[in-house]
Design a protein that fits this description.
alpha+beta, 3 strands
Length: about 100
């Protein structure tokens, strides 16, 4: 009986965690950046468009820039493209 109750509790916790995760990642965006002669496109997800764009930009800059100063410069670089919605839902890390 303890095993059944324990399994039910674990299953309920996993379901609640999964639902909370789905709610937080409502928007998917892809950002393409050109920085210091290199180019990359990365996707990100977030609760809203702004959070998803920031996530995608941070991921792209992690690839393009090493160091704090270059990372801050990369974060301020205008994006070559920003796409949000179903068309941005490609495989993670797929570049153009």
């Amino acid at each position: 009986m303890r095993l059944v109750v324990g399994f039910a509790l674990v299953l309920a916790f996993a379901a609640a965690l999964w639902m909370a995760t789905l709610r937080e990642t409502a928007v998917s965006c892809e950002v393409c950046l050109d920085f210091d002669g290199a180019s990359v496109c990365r996707s990100g997800v977030g609760a809203d468009r702004s959070a998803a764009l920031q996530s995608a930009r941070s991921t792209a800059c992690a690839v393009l820039a090493n160091g704090v100063t270059r990372g801050m410069r990369c974060q301020r670089t205008p994006a070559r493209s920003e796409v949000c919605g179903p068309e941005a839902a490609r495989s993670p890390g797929e570049g153009r």
